[in-house]
């Protein structure tokens, strides 16, 4: 496998008043294309910050981040937006669907950033909803769906533009065990069948078991690496 | 789905709030439209005035009479082509609330001078000349009351008493209908013989309210005015002569400064609406901070989000304002038909001004929320730090 995204000598610091808080320093990591990585660690260990850097929604204080040969740390905001739209699908703990849009329109949202016509967009939305098993809920609004169904819509939204990488931040944190297992199985399927590279931040060891690799982050350092 | 449908969905995500904002904007622009139409009506009052027409009134004010003998002296002034006179009757039909703008006029010359304003059939004119109780009614007035030629109607005065009957009522026969000969001609008026009025009036006999003069050339207007006023200087009824347009506008001016009223009312309404809509828009966008953060995360560029938020407030202003201008135009049309005020209309100028104000309202109320959305940091918006 080839490296899809890597961080070299990555550092992230925040200035709070007179104090400089270091989230991590001299961090190196490489994620291969097709990996399913779970990042675990206690609160404040820097998991979410790391995910933000990998997704290009936050910037490292120093170090380089490379995605398929492209230096994210050298891109401006506009370039990062374009890169995110083309390469990354995001799945959040609390789904973050647009309440004013029905399921189909929520899924269609990333496609507005492409040059696809409305017919092609409709086909892709139907396919994405079919993959997550929610074809019959296309016209339903988020408030009319359960948490599990909303998360499946969020997954459909994340994959509809066919990105190479999915970033999941506690995707099952708000769900019961049974629903969580369904969502995790779906992510595993996307990884194995569709070749999506998945990086998932989680507190849940059960969830981490679905990943092919688990990275433990503590005080800004990977303390061990466990094969799942 | 397009950016526009996304804007629409966001705008109506809270239906009650959107509806209340739309209603507020609708009423602001309805007020603007109606007041603008009324202002246009007042501006046009002098619109039908002939350029070479002068009006002489008592110098004290136009409610004070002048001796009828002035007319012959004025006709002899160099530069005067024709002169006629009229007296305010203070008329109403059946009940005081049914005001009828009625003038007791010198029949022949008055109709000649206003021949450019009104069309009258030759047979009706002949009938008017022949019948001292004859009444000419404007087309709008006739339409309002269903009057037709040959009808016998009583008109009462809220000023004068008929000394023949001891009542304030005079009986008339409608002998002709005055049709408009030009757009601004007011056909909600009625004319009758001054002689009929003068012979039966209990006071104010042989006096007139104003004298209308047609000059031989509009370039002579100023000279003729000066000569007339000089002629009656130091008399018991000194005169003030001005163009008819100035006279009409001065008459309206007594109602107050319409432009100032319009500006103040509309200004106050807009300042209030601006604050309400601006605050509500800012609140609506603030509530959607996380959604905007998600959109940015998905790859929507900040500039596109800025345009969408600004588009939302613009759309709100237009959705509330455009139907309001249409409603104002309709309302003015109904008012014009019912009161016969010819200039009551929402002109193209005012419509364009209304649209410019809508756009300004949309931009002003949307610019701050849009700017905040533009600058929104994704990590902060998602609360992920």
Description of the molecule:
The complex is a heterodimer of chains A (228) and B (385). In chain A, helix 5 packs parallel to helix 6. Chain A has 228 residues and is an alpha/beta fold. The relative contact order of chain A is 0.19. The longest helix of chain A is centred in the last third of the chain and has 18 residues. Chain A is built from 7 helices and 10 strands. In chain A, strands 6-7-8-3-9-10 form a 6-stranded mixed β-sheet. Chain A has a 4-stranded antiparallel β-sheet with strand order 2-1-4-5, with helices on one face. The mean pLDDT of chain A is 90. Chain B has 385 residues and is of the alpha+beta class. Chain B has 2 domains: 168 residues, no CATH class; 172 residues, no CATH class. Chain B contains 14 helices and 13 strands. In chain B, the strands form 2 sheets. A 6-stranded mixed beta barrel of chain B has the order 4-5-10-7-9-8. Chain B has a two-stranded antiparallel ribbon with strand order 2-11. Chain B is elongated and about 90 Å long. Classes of the chains: A alpha/beta (228), B alpha+beta (385). Chains A and B meet through helix 1 and helix 2 of A and helix 1, helix 11 and helix 14 of B.
Outline the fold blueprint.
The complex is a heterodimer of chains A (228) and B (385).
Chain A: E1 3-16, E2 19-32, E3 36-40, H1 47-54, E4 62-67, E5 70-71, H2 77-87, E6 88-91, H3 103-108, H4 118-131, H5 147-159, E7 165-169, H6 177-194, E8 197-201, H7 205-208, E9 213-218, E10 221-227
Parallel strand pairs in A: 3-8, 3-9, 6-7, 7-8
Antiparallel strand pairs in A: 1-2, 1-4, 4-5, 9-10
Chain B: H1 3-11, H2 15-43, E1 53-58, E2 66-67, H3 70-75, E3 80-88, E4 91-92, E5 99-105, H4 107-113, E6 118-119, H5 122-130, E7 134-138, H6 139-145, E8 152-157, E9 169-180, E10 189-193, H7 194-200, E11 207-208, E12 210-215, H8 221-231, E13 239-243, H9 244-253, H10 258-287, H11 289-298, H12 302-339, H13 348-375, H14 378-382
Parallel strand pairs in B: 5-10, 7-9
Antiparallel strand pairs in B: 1-12, 1-13, 2-11, 3-5, 3-12, 4-5, 4-8, 6-9, 7-10, 8-9
């Amino acid at each position: 496998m080839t490296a899809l995204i890597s961080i070299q000598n990555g550092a992230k610091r925040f200035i709070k008043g007179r104090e400089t808080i270091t989230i991590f320093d001299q961090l190196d990591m490489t994620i291969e294309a097709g990996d399913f990585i779970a990042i675990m660690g206690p609160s404040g260990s820097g998991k979410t910050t790391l995910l933000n850097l990998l997704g290009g929604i936050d910037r490292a204080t120093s170090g380089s981040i490379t995605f398929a040969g492209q230096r994210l740390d050298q891109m401006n905001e506009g370039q990062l937006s374009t890169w995110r739209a083309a390469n990354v699908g995001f799945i959040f703990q609390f789904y973050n669907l647009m309440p004013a849009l029905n399921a189909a329109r929520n899924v269609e949202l990333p496609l507005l950033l492409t040059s696809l016509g409305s017919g092609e967009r409709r086909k892709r939305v139907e396919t994405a909803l079919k993959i997550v098993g929610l074809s019959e809920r296309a016209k339903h609004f988020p408030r009319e769906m359960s948490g599990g169904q909303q998360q499946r819509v969020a997954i459909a939204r994340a994959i509809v533009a066919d990105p190479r990488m999915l970033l999941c931040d506690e995707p099952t944190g708000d769900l019961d065990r049974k629903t969580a297992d369904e969502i995790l199985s779906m992510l595993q399927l996307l990884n194995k069948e569709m070749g999506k590279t998945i990086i998932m931040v989680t507190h849940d060891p059960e969830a981490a078991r679905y990943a092919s690799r688990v990275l433990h982050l503590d005080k800004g350092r990977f303390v061990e690496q466990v094969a799942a | 789905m397009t950016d526009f449908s996304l804007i629409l969905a966001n705008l109506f995500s809270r239906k009650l709030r959107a509806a209340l904002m739309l209603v507020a904007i609708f009423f602001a622009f309805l007020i603007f439209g109606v007041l603008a139409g009324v202002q246009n009506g007042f501006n046009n009052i002098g619109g039908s005035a002939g350029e070479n027409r002068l009006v002489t009134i008592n110098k004290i004010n136009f409610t004070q009479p002048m001796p009828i003998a002035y007319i012959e002296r004025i006709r002899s002034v160099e530069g005067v082509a024709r002169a006629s006179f009229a007296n305010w009757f203070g008329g109403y039909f059946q009940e005081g609330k049914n005001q009828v703008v009625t003038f007791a006029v010198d029949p022949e010359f008055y109709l000649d001078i206003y021949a450019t304003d009104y069309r009258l059939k030759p047979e009706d004119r002949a009938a008017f000349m022949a019948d001292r109780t004859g009444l000419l009614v404007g087309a709008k007035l006739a339409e309002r009351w269903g009057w037709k030629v040959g009808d016998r109607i009583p008109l009462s005065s809220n000023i004068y008493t008929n000394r023949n009957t001891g009542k304030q009522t005079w009986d008339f026969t409608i002998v002709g209908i005055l049709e408009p000969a030009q757009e601004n001609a007011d056909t909600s008026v009625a004319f009758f013989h001054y002689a009929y009025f003068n012979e039966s009036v209990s006071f104010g006999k042989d006096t007139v309210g104003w004298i209308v003069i047609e000059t031989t050339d509009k370039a002579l207007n100023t000279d003729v005015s000066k000569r007339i006023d000089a002629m009656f200087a130091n008399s018991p009824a000194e005169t003030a002569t001005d163009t008819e347009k100035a006279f009409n506008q001065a008459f309206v001016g007594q109602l107050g400064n319409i432009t100032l009223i319009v500006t103040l009312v509309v200004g106050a309404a807009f300042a209030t609406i601006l604050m309400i809509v601006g605050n509500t828009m800012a609140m609506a966008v603030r509530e959607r901070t996380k959604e905007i953060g998600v959109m940015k995360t998905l790859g929507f560029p900040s500039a596109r989000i800025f345009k969408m938020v600004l588009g939302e407030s613009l759309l709100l202003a237009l959705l509330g304002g455009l139907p309001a201008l249409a409603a104002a135009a309709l309302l003015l049309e109904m008012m014009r038909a019912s009161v016969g005020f010819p200039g009551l209309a929402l002109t193209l100028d005012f419509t364009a001004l209304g649209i410019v104000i809508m756009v300004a309202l949309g931009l002003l109320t949307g610019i701050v929320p849009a700017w905040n959305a533009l600058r929104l940091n994704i990590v902060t918006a998602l609360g992920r730090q």
